[in-house]
């Protein structure tokens, strides 16, 4: 089973990420987001970035995490090839990102994602597995 999958949602797109731990589900959500935007195999790990994100609760933290990645895409054209969550709690996370500047001459952009939304947001731990469900605004 893939660690993430997408589903259609009117003019938007949904993302479901799964993992054995909270860290893993956040990493898989990031991988799913990047995969929607470009083929991640074309990204190098030539740049490093540390990010700190905070929010009111775990669900909001997921939205803030994905929107932080989109912020770096918008401001630096940066997308991560690899994400390592170094610290995570109910309201905060820190991560080390290794990635690349998106360059249309080297990367075929599949679609542009504007934001992660709260619509239909779910983050649940069931039977020893985490699952996140988020709608992305295109």
Structure description:
The chain is α+β, with helices and mostly antiparallel strands. It has a single domain, classed as Archease, Possible Chaperone, Chain: A, domain 1, CATH 3.55.10.10. It is 25% helix and 43% strand. The protein is built from 2 helices and 8 strands; from the N terminus they run E-E-H-E-H-E-E-E-E-E. The strands form 2 sheets. Strands 1, 2, 6, 7 and 8 form a 5-stranded antiparallel beta sheet that branches. The protein starts with a strand and ends with a strand.
Please give the oligomerization state of what you see.
single chain
Distance between the termini: 26 Å
At CATH level 3, the topology is Archease, Possible Chaperone, Chain: A, domain 1
CATH homologous superfamily label: Archease domain
- Work out the radius of gyration: 14 Å
Label the overall shape. Answer: globular
Total DSSP E strands: 8
SSE series: EEHEHEEEEE
- Average predicted confidence as pLDDT: 94
Stretches where pLDDT is under 50 for at least 5 consecutive residues are none
Number of helices: 2
> From the helix content, strand content and strand pairing, which structural class follows?
alpha+beta
Name the beta content range. Answer: 35-45%
């Amino acid at each position: 089973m893939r660690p993430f999958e997408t589903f259609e949602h009117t003019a938007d797109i949904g993302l479901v990420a799964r993992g054995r731990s909270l860290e893993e589900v956040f990493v898989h959500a990031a991988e799913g987001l990047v995969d929607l935007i470009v083929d991640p195999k074309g990204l190098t790990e030539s740049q490093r970035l540390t990010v700190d994100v905070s929010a009111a609760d775990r669900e909001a933290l997921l939205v803030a995490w994905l929107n932080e990645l989109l912020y770096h895409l918008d401001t630096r054209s940066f997308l991560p090839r690899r994400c390592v969550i170094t610290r995570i709690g109910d309201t905060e996370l820190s991560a080390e990102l290794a990635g690349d500047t998106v360059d249309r001459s080297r990367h075929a952009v599949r679609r542009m994602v504007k934001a992660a939304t709260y619509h239909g947001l779910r983050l649940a731990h069931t039977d020893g597995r985490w699952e996140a469900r988020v709608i992305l605004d295109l």
